[in-house]
Amino acid sequence: MRRGISMQWSYTWSHSLDQGTYSTGGGQIVNSYDWRADYGNSSDDVRHRFVGHYVWQLPFFGHASNAFVRGAAGGWALKRNRDYSRRAIR
User: Fold this and answer.
1) Upper half-sphere CA count for residue 41 (Cβ side, 13 Å)
2) CB 7 within 8 A of CB 54
3) What is the pLDDT of residue 6?
4) H helical segments located in 15-66
5) Are 20 and 29 in contact (CB under 8 A)?
6) In 3-state terms, what secondary structure has residue 73?
7) What is the pLDDT of residues 49-74, one digit of tens each?
8) Cβ atoms < 10 Å from Cβ of 74
9) Which of 39, 35, 47 minimizes the C-alpha distance to 17?
10) How far is CA 33 from CA 26, 36, 37, 39, 59, in A?
């Protein structure tokens, strides 16, 4: 943590395939003799995902001389999580 701020960011690319709901339009096997024809994008397919978070420890009242003020008003932090994802177009 530098100057009371901590951050972390990550990016993930993936592609999920199966014989599930969106490959057949309803989850039913269309041709039981050719299961490969039903193979396609999974309903859980998330191609791009960007996740980040930060924590900022507020510098106010952390070093106050009064113990009550330091205990009640010091040590607070702001936190924020962000999750951006894009599902594949079906």
Assistant:
1) 13
2) yes
3) 94
4) 21-24
5) no
6) helix
7) 999 999 998 888 877 888 888 888 88
8) 17
9) 39
10) 18, 9, 9, 13, 67
